Amino acid sequence: MRKFGFKIFNTNLQTAPDFVRECVDYAAQKEDMFIELMVLTDRPQKELYELKDILNEIEVRIHAVHSSYGFDAGNKNLEKQNRQMFEYTQFAADLFNSKSIVVHAGCGHGKSCLDETVRQFKLFNDKRIVVENLPYIDDNGDDLSGNTADEIKYIMNESGCGFCFDFSHAICAAISLNIGIDTQLKNFFDLNPTVYHLCDGDLNKSEDKHLHFGEGNYPLKRFLNEFTADDACITMETGGFSLHNDLNVKDYEYLKSL
After folding, report:
1. Distance of CA 152 to the CA centre of its chain
2. Core-most of 60, 129, 181, 251, by most CB within 10 Å?
3. Residues 131, 169: contact at Cβ < 8 Å?
4. In whole angstroms, what is the distance from residue 3 CA to residue 112 CA?
5. Taken in order 179, 180, 182, 183, is the CA torsion positive or negative?
6. What's the maximum distance between 2 C-alpha atoms anywhere in the chain?
């Protein structure tokens, strides 16, 4: 059975408590739903305990912070900061009994960046890590690694981590690198992902827009049928993570209708 996940942030408990409770109340009624929790690390741990009480028995998957928040496993100069941030993330993963921790591949291009990512992943020493593939560049024009299946496979083989397959990131990178989209998606799917990220978007553009399902031109039904496992855990990364649970519900119902 495929499972579908709402994405929330631990900070939403303070900024949008009603949104959190609406997400939780809806997910609790469905056997095929989970929550992916993005863990910002500058918050007191007591807030995680509060979230734990609210989420109760719902399955939770953890997502670590990335370069937008100062975490970059491809940067040796940030090793100390990265380890401190990841220790907080591990605490959250332990608390919620998460089976996986999604971590972005490091920033930069080239083997040196991949090797530094591998080195730091080994230092983290957590078998729950699943590395997420990334676009070729981010919204600020900065270089990102983990753009192809070969790069992700190298990180997996050298560090022992699993894989989080982000469809939109894969498409964006394929366009930037002039790789056939179907070839790119198949090569990533062949890596046996642990977690999937899915949104809608534009097949002709390299920008990751996080559109709600039905707002773009991604062939979502074919993506689900051809490039996700029957027991896939699919996080719905739609709407730029807007805090409107009615739109989250519509996205869930859209995927269920395919």
Report:
1. 14
2. 129
3. no
4. 36
5. negative
6. 47
Containing structural domain, residue 109:
3-257
What are the two backbone dihedrals, phi and then psi, of residue 128, each rounded to the nearest 5 degrees? -85, -10
For residue 165, give both structure tokens: 């397959």
Nearest Cα to Cα of residue 40 among 70, 20, 14, 10: 10
Tell me if residue 215 falls in helix, strand or coil. Answer: coil
- Is 119:83 a contact under the CB 8 Å cutoff? no
Residue 222 structure tokens:
């074919």
CATH number for the domain that contains residue 27: 3.20.20.150
Please state the domain count of the chain.
Answer: 1
pLDDT digits (tens, 9 = 90+) for 60-99: 999 999 998 999 999 999 999 999 999 999 999 999 999 9
The beta-strand segments (E) located in 40-194 are: 60-64, 101-104, 129-132, 162-166
